[in-house]
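Supplementary Methods S3. Input chains for the assembly prediction are listed below.
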Amino acid sequence: MMRPGYILIVLILLMDSCVDPVNLPIIRNANVMVVDGMITNAAGPQTVRLFYTSALDENVNLPAPVPNATVTITDDLGTVVVLSETSEGVYETDSGFSGVVGRTYTLNIQKDDGSAYESVPTLMKESGVIASVYQDFRENVLNDGDLTKPQDALYFYVDAQASDQTNLLRWRWRATYYVRTYPELVTRRIDGEIVPFPLPCSGYEPGGDGGITYVKPCTCCECWPVINSNTVAITQPQSNTDALFAHEYIGRVPVDQVYFYEKMVVEVDQLSVSDEVYQFWLLTKTQLEGAGSIFQPNIIKVRGNMRSVTDNNEEVFGVFSVSAVTTERLTITSQDIPKQLFPQDTIKSDCRLYYKASNQRPPFW
Amino acid sequence: MTLKTCGIVLLVLISALSVPAQTLQDIRIPDLKEPESLLSVISKLEKHEKIKFFFREEWLTGFVVLPSDSGQPLENVLTTKFKDTGITFSFLYDYAVIIISDPAQFLEYKENLERAIESRKIIESRIIGDRKKLVPGKVLHLQGTVRDAKNKAPLKGVDMIINDRLTATTDDEGNYSIRLSGNEFVLIFKLPSFEEKFIDLQIFESGRVDVILEDSPTILEEVVFTGENLTDREIGQVNLSLQGVKRAPALLGEADVIRQIQQQPGVTTVGEVSNGFNVRGGGVDQNLVLYDGIPIFNTAHALGFFSAFNAYALQQVSFYRGGIPAEYGGRASSVLNITSREGSDEWHGNGGIGILSSYASVGGPLKKKKTTLMASARASYSDWILNMIKSDYKDLRHSSLSFYDASLKLAHNFTPRTKLVFSGYLSKDQFTLSNDTSYAYQNISASVSVIHSITDKLFVHAQIGTGDYGYSITEPEPASAFELKYGVTYPSLKIDFNYDGEHKLTFGFHSTFYAFKPGELKPGSQASGISRVAMPDEHSIESALYFADNFQLAPKLSVNAGVRLSFYQRIGKGTVYLYEPGMPMETRNIYDSVEYGGGELMKAYAGVEPRLAMTYSLHKDGALKFGYNRMYQYLHLITNTASVTPVDIWQSSNTYFKPQIADQFSFGYARELRENSVEVFAEVFYKSVQNVLDFKDGAKLLLNPQLETALLPGRATSYGLELSAEKLKGRLIGSVNYTFSRSFRKGTSSFESENINQGEQYPSNYDQPHIVNLSWRYGITRRYFFTGFFTYHTGRPVSLPHSTYSVDGVPVLDFPSRNNYRLSDYHRLDVALIIEGNHKRKKVLDGSWTISLYNVYGRKNAYSVFYADDGRGNIKPYKLSVIGSIVPSISYSFKF
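Predicted structure tokens for the full assembly:
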């Protein structure tokens, strides 16, 4: 809605203001349990992640998991589904299980120390339709002239319509692209001499005419990295139910040549959300956008829809989202980028490690 | 006035070198039969002794040597004769006597005279006695009587200022009597509501100067403490020198009244882009800012970078931070009373050109001695600056930030006793961003006043006025286009009486009607997905009766005691939502609502506000002061940001929001040093405010018809010590002050879950314990001034998160409590060089240049600290500095 950030930019340039990293006192982590769970009407498995908050100097993507908990989802008909722990702190239903619009679901968690938590019972509402997903190329919007980093970006938009059940929607997306690496070209220096040292996953072994010999297919040459949306895109609170949403900005990716060697596929989910979950995202959005703004709200305490059953005073963060989902795909190729992209670099590495990506070809590729 | 040239002196020295040594101390006055002039004695000595005198004849005219001095050593006789005359002498090389006249006194006289001429004062010349009959060094007596031109009644309490120093005050019979040493003086006779009288006095023997003072054309506006001594002022009062404001270094050369207020002891601000100021731990909304008697809600231009008042269009600025008189009410912390300039009896104008804005003002008589006009306008042209910035960011090149303000004052004297004044003021701000949201806000005030003197001692000032404040936010993007509007209009009526006698009485009646439009959101286009949301209008009436008496309770004890009775009514139409008793005030706990019709009384409050200020004179130059005031504030500013933004809302009291009630005690000691040229004071204060509204975590403040669910009443307390020293006169003037103060908030509810910071007291956004301000102005020459300002304050409290987590790929921060850390300390130095035009009296245009450097050492003072994902999953702290470098500027101003 309002974008104070732009005002900030104006003032920055007018007054030569600036944003700098700063050192602050080491702050103690509160170690509160966080729930990141969702049930949708799409194919399972439905996943609930349980972990602890991270300290500010820790990587937020690698939190300490909460293992050995008992996690169940109950619907208003009394059906109880038990989730099993597939990896530490990750609890999943069978892949055949999915939610049904019109049912109300509640998440229950019991940790191995006996403490128990539950979500607000939440009705799954229709998610409406996505009319179209499209992108807009914008030049020189990133990294403020630091030419070692991408300067341009692709902005993603949706045109959508809410259902007559709710106007509270959230959009998220996953952008998948393709990368090719050359792990067979890895070399090593032995006694001052450079000799071939192909990685085992390349399918090559040292020896032969070119110094290496093909033995089996490469398992680490082709990868499909994914960029997840990390901004909050939600409908405006004052919008109508049944509303048409046109040109809703849902996020952007930097234009990096590596994304467009082949193509980029953006899958956009339109999720219906409950009042409580909508509030959670609204506050999170305000918190994210307020950061660095001169209108930064003094404090934003983000509340979720989970609570402790065993201890009223214990905090628990995060949400259990009950959402119907509508998905649309957008394919972008280098033809869509009105700028010359450079040819691919020859990366001599395991693509899974280099790009932190999966070597599994996605079904839609 | 120079000594004989060095060349001659040297020649004499060389020729005398061969003379055998004889000490000057041995030389004695020759035998005299009768008194002889010193000049003739000197020539005798030069004839008979090996001695040479260097002097100018006019210095020694009038000095007489008596027969009784015969045989005395020359040294002793000269020492006695020259005592207190400004003439000194010294011996050199055993034969030379150098006589020097100290030019300081004469220069001071000349400077004062020039200054009076420059300010176009009418100056009367008086010569007493004959220069030839002058007896040097003789202390002269000057006496006289000051009378009122109208009825020839003697005037008591007239200040007599000699060469810039308050020297005497007339007694009950209007008489004064002083002793003077020296011969040339500029005398100024001053009494509030009378025209100042300037006299260029040349005095060679004792005598009388009788003076007649005429009524000032501005009957009432001057009846404030202009030029009062610190020890006579009531506690917590300051009058800003507008000349000082204009000469202070300013951001981008914009002379700024609010910034000067921010430099007063006990006043803080949360940062550069903060709208307004915080007084003694109070909120920005607790300051009553009056422009010609009408409250102004938003005092900022460009988000607070500049104040909305053009310093050049103002007559007087008075600031009260404690001991607030009964005539002011409606805000809890302070009063800033701004009076605009009135046209004079001759046409004059001034103007200025700065980097950011330009202004012009012109004033003069429409009809001589009857009607005057004063108009001024200021406008920014910062679009030009924005567009000059080379940026690849397309949006920016089409952005704009602009503001303007204008004022008009018309005064008409029907009779010498009755005057009608119209005053109008308008300020407007706008940010427009290409393809993006634009913000606009404006203040308007207009008033008509009748000022009438019923008798010579009783005056009435009746004013009908209105004010308006509003803002709008516009989003043009068709799919989400909207316009959000907020506004308040407040017509008012004021009748004030002043009685001037043994008891100076003030009493009157004020009433203001508020019509709030608390918010309307409209779709901005056909295609917009926004639905219309309109908050119902709210109406209320705030009235007050007040009475105060300023009198001398005992010879040394003056008292200003008063009381203000305030009344407040919230009237329909409107809806009051009823919440389940025993449940938190949340939307889901509403069980019913009550509708009120138009004009129906929904809620009423009343308050008794006692006010007291006492001054006890300890001795001639020192005084103890005490102040107490209780203030009711019926309007609340609702904000969840540290500084005030253009989108904050003013909420009037209602069933759930009780009026804020402030109690403040202050106690101080003031002293004047060095003939009133240095003022020092120390004050301590304690302030407690009830019913201060604080937002609940994550509260929705805009367009919330159940705003009571988002806010929690709390208590604010603050206390502190203020120390200040100010040098008012001389080539170097300046001030230094230090404030120690704390400011806390506490928000408790009967429901634990609603408590702010677990119900614990926590520091407010503007709790800055240590503040040091230093400012100076140094006259390099009479036209060049070097001015500067240094400020230091403890960093303001901020809320920092303790931990972080990510949900569905989005990072979230957890803030455990409010204001749990502090920003790093703030300090900044600004300097300016001011070059004023030459001081010739007759010239067409009198221009001056101001070259200023803001933030001289380019400190990146933190405005806020925030956390952001560095793109690799690590949440890193960053600080935002609004001004991150030195900001130079140059501006030109002129007057005619």
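Confidence is low (pLDDT under 50) at residues 1-21, 217-228, 386-397 of chain B. The radius of gyration of chain B is 33 Å.
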